[in-house]
């Protein structure tokens, strides 16, 4: 009997319910923002009782924080060889297939940024999952400024690609842009 | 009698109706995307009869194109002295107060990018209002690649700022970031 089959039905159902709630949360928060999305509508999207959301996730704030983490699934940007960082990230941003789900995460963040409560959760999440590790990896001097510069580049090319990928560049131009983005990342880090 | 008072009531009403429809369109398209937004709901937001939308704007495509233009109001980026471009744009992105309405334009574009009809209108609008003038201004060689690099930087720092402006940088760091963004723009253009 495999490990998967050995999982009790109760846990399997719990995992499925949790996943359904998180999926519904990403959808509602990205469409209506933190303040606009109601737990009742979200529960209806997920096909569960609203009380279950509280049992699984606690408050609306906690659910939003969890949905942010769940919906982002960032690639392991700061894990590889630091020297290869500019080429590796440029390749990811310009040449590799677009990652799934990125756009929904961005919409959720943009749509909710005007909410005071959500903004604090977004900042904490950004610090923990992105700026913190990046600043540590970059080190002194001026880690905060250089991290912000790297973040702006990653954000910008991810968004530009989401908006009109493939609409403008020939194959040769895509390779040129990839080299240019690597230059930009070197300038940002340096 | 001033020029404003001399405007016939009919034109004043027409202008107000047009503006109300465009405002409602920016709101609906940015929340629900091109495919999701119905002209009926949009008319209800604007407090007008749905037939008026067709009379004023033609089709849904035409309204979307007009809303994109109306909701963007980009600053005159490529009008000044080319030499001062990196410093001028960095200042705008990092130091000057955030422009109003930018976020709604971005949400409208991101939310609608998955729609085939909307994507074509977005690309045409980007070409006409942004990439076209920018490529002409940059000139040969590789104008398309360099324009794309400039666009990625502008987009990225605008979005990063919309998400967590002021959350991370001290005053001195903001000036440092401004110089860094100017360096990035020079790298993008060069």
TrEMBL record, chains A, B:
Gene3D superfamilies: Tetracycline Repressor, domain 2. InterPro entries: Homeodomain-like_sf, HTH-type_TetR-like_transc_reg, HTH_TetR, Tet_transcr_reg_TetR-rel_C_sf, TetR_C_16. Keywords: DNA-binding. PROSITE patterns: HTH_TETR_2. Residues 38-57 bind DNA. Residues 15-75 form the HTH tetR-type domain. It holds the Pfam family TetR_N. It comes from Phenylobacterium deserti. GO terms for molecular function: DNA-binding transcription factor activity; transcription cis-regulatory region binding. This is TetR/AcrR family transcriptional regulator. PANTHER family: HTH-TYPE TRANSCRIPTIONAL REGULATOR RUTR, TRANSCRIPTIONAL REGULATORY PROTEIN.
């Amino acid at each position: 009997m495999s490990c998967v089959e050995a999982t009790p039905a109760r846990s399997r159902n719990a995992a499925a319910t949790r996943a359904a709630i998180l999926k519904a949360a990403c959808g509602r928060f990205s469409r209506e923002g933190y303040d606009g999305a109601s737990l009742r509508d979200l529960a209806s999207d997920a096909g569960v009782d609203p009380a279950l959301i509280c049992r699984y996730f606690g408050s609306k704030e906690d659910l939003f924080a969890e949905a942010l983490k769940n919906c982002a699934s960032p690639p392991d940007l700061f894990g590889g060889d630091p020297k290869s960082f500019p080429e590796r990230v440029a390749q990811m941003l310009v040449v590799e297939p677009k990652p799934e789900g990125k756009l929904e995460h961005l919409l959720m963040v943009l749509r909710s940024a005007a909410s005071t409560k959500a903004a604090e959760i977004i900042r904490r999440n950004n610090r923990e999952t992105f700026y913190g590790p990046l600043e540590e990896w970059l080190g002194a001097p001026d880690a905060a400024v250089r991290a912000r510069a790297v973040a702006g580049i990653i954000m910008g090319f991810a968004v530009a690609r989401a908006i009109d990928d493939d609409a403008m560049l020939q194959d040769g131009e895509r390779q040129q842009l990839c080299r240019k983005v690597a230059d930009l990342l070197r300038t940002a880090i340096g």
